[in-house]
Amino acid sequence: MTLHVETRGAGPDLVLLHGWALHGGMWGPWLDELERVACLHVFDLPGHGHSPWPDGARDLADLAAAVFPQIPRGAAVLGWSLGGMLALELARRHPQHLRALLLVATTPKFVADPDWEHGMPAEVLAEFGRGLALDYHRTVHGFLALQTRGDERALETRRLLRARLEAHGTPDLRGLARGLDILRDTDLRDALPRIMLPTLVVAGEHDRLTPPQAGRELAAQLPMARFHLIGRSGHAPFLSHPGEVLAEVTCFLSRHAPAEAP
Questions:
Q1: What is the DSSP pairing of strand 5-8 with strand 98-104?
Q2: Which pLDDT score, from 0 to 100, does residue 260 have?
Q3: Which helix (H) or strand (E) covers residue 213, if one does?
């Protein structure tokens, strides 16, 4: 199965994996600057945008299997939210294939339970699932509103997200439903100490979906990670605070550039 991937820019390979219900066109204008220092491979995840949903796919491992064939060897992977969890799964399964990870608004476990308080209540996520069957547009727009809540530029960020939402067409409802199941069921905490890749973890101070403490815990458990907090930001800091995120990302990439061939 071939996924939709837009390639732009020049330099070391950088793969971008977006979040649930969105597509590769959601990253915003900061990519115009990022492509000056990297060759960007901007994916539409399976079942999102222009990419088909793979028959039989049910979990994060299946998503990784669908995405992996189109990831260049030696690439760094930048994942946002669900895309960040997918980046962790790719690193767990194919550590020799990747160069580094950049994880934005990412958590090892999306749903809260008694031993993990840094997540979304399971009932809130279940409500999104019930809403998909009744009104896809209203449910996704509600999800976008939750992403920007608490952000100092919430209105501007939400307008940008909504304006770009359908630029790549309507996502596959099977992919959306399975994506919620993946967010509900995935727990990557036990795998983190074995992921030996340089990693940048970026969190928004007021993120209501993946609280910043989840990012702190993620960075603490990854052996080669550093944590950066974007003040007064929500779940999409690269849209609300693009300059600060760009500076962190480009600095990290310069520190972990691929070794030149002899």
A1: unpaired
A2: 65
A3: helix 212-221
Tokens of 10: 């020049």
Could you confirm whether 233 is annotated as catalytic? no
> In this structure, are residues 220 and 192 in contact, taking their beta carbons and an 8 Å threshold?
no
Catalytic one of 4, 41, 81, 240: 81
User: Tell me, what's the pLDDT at 210?
Assistant: 97
Q: Which two tokens stand for residue 238?
A: 């690269």
Catalytic site residue 240?
no
Helix, strand, or coil here: 247? helix
Q: Which of 41, 235, 241, 256 is catalytic?
A: 235
Spot the catalytic one: 4, 51, 207, 256: 207
In whole angstroms, what is the distance from residue 101 CA to residue 128 CA?
Answer: 29
241: annotated active-site residue: no
> Of 122, 103, 114, which is closest to residue 181 (Cα–Cα)?
122
Number of H helices, E strands in the chain: 10, 7
pLDDT one-digit tens code per residue, 187-209: 999 999 999 999 999 999 999 99
75-80 sheet: strands from edge to edge: 5-8, 39-43, 13-17, 75-80, 98-104, 199-204, 225-230
Query: Which tokens belong to 231?
Result: 């003040």
- Res. 112: pLDDT tops 70: yes
Q: Which residue has the tokens 């399971």?
A: 122
Per the listing, tokens 């550039």 go with 257
